[in-house]
Amino acid sequence: MRVLAAMSGGVDSAVAAARAVAAGHEVVGVHLALSTAPGTLRTGSRGCCSKEDAGDAKRAADVLGIPFYVWDFADRFKEDVIDDFIESYAAGETPNPCLRCNEKIKFSALADRAIALGFDAVATGHYARLDDGVLRRAVDADKDQSYVLAVLTAEQLSRALFPVGDTPKDQIRAEAAERGLAVANKPDSHDICFIPSGDTRAFLGAKIGIRPGAVIDADTGEVLAQHDGVHGFTIGQRKGLGVQGPAVDGKPRYVTAIEPETGTVRVGSAAKLEVWTITADRAVWTSGQAPEGPVECVVQVRAHGGTARAVAQVSRGARGGPESDDDGIVVQLSEPLTGVARGQAVVLYRPDEAGDVVIGSGTISGTGSQSDRS
Q1: Distances (CA, A) of 343 to 118, 266, 303
Q2: Cα–Cα 20 to 30 A to 294, which of 136, 182, 229, 283?
Q3: Band (321; pLDDT cuts 50, 70, 90)
Q4: Span 3-24, mean pLDDT?
């Protein structure tokens, strides 16, 4: 099989490429240039897509003895990931750029080009498993990335390989060292790749500008402070609210609602963060077919967040059909989740003992409290 190995310059993608070679595939390495002005060096675990990363990927390919190329996807990345990220925050949402990058870049734009060039699959260093086309959590629960891959369609999964998903991270590093890969001890990148400073609020402020509004007490309606834009807030946020002191009862305040139309940010008690109902759009079913009737499942709403048992129901769109962008999901939780924001993904897992099989996902468009269920 001809395999295109996406090599970020990190240890995971290097070992993924090495395993594809060891499996007897005809492998070609490619590094994605995602920035029009890549930094010369990364700083520790911050940032990626730097010149250093491209060099590390090239050196790994040389050790493996495979051809290596750099493909420029900077314009597509800006349009589909960075601009989407900015627009979502301006609309009071909390997007996950890694999820959108997988959906639009690595398993769409990159995979489309790979297939056009005669490759059979794209291999990446994601921590997830594929079992006869079924997406499952990785063996290493702490590194599991099935959440950010749950936006992939059955067709996209059919041309994907995740060679490291069956191995704990420490063993991946040991294997990299044994193979003579210099990235064996390279720090993981944990910040948003296009914000290497780690200051998301400053990045968004520079892009969106000042859009003043008020911070309001969710219970009393009292104006507590002014702010420069809803992009500086997310549901569940406790710090950086610009509010002097805690609530009257002495308990901390949290962001409970964001209203971009009026620039209003509402803050209240932790109890107001409890969500019992989730609605989502842009439904994707990893099997390629939307389920019929209610589905018992376990849901997750953040990449490394908690889970809750639930019952999900497909909400058919105008056109309907499997994997339709018009399809939605209504999720009724059996226990509350907190910090659930519009723009995040809700991912549905099978509720069996393992709980590691992905059923599908949707982009959260709304939430409801316990009183909304009655």
Answers
A1: 35, 18, 13
A2: 136
A3: very low
A4: 97
Q: Is 8 annotated as a binding residue?
A: yes
How far is residue 23 from each of residues 14, 63, 66, 106, 140, measured CA to CA in Å?
14, 16, 14, 22, 22
Given a contact cutoff of 8 angstroms between Cβ atoms, the answer to whether 247 and 269 are in contact is: yes
Q: Which residues contact 353 (CB under 8 A, 6 or more apart)?
A: none
| SS3 assignment, position 322 | coil
Phi, psi of 35 (to 5 degrees): -125, 140
Q: What is the pTM of this model?
A: 0.91
Q: CA nearest 135: which of 288, 268, 344, 305?
A: 288
- Are 279 and 372 in contact, with CB atoms under 8 Å apart? no
Residue owning tokens 């009257």 = 248
Q: Per the annotation, does 108 bind a ligand?
A: no
Domains of the chain: 2-185 (3.40.50.620), 210-267 (no CATH), 274-373 (2.40.30.10)
> What is residue 317's predicted lDDT score, i.e. its pLDDT?
61
Q: What is the pLDDT of residue 197?
A: 80
How many residues make up the chain in this entry? 374
Q: Which two tokens stand for residue 180?
A: 């003579």
* CB-based contact 50:41 (threshold 8 Å): yes
1 is in an annotated binding site: no
Active site amino acids: 101, 193
Q: Give CB contacts under 8 A, 24+ apart, made by 48-52.
A: 48/8, 48/9, 48/10, 48/189, 48/193, 49/8, 49/193, 49/194, 50/9, 52/9
* Choice among 19-33, 98-112, 167-181, 240-254 with the minimum mean pLDDT: 240-254
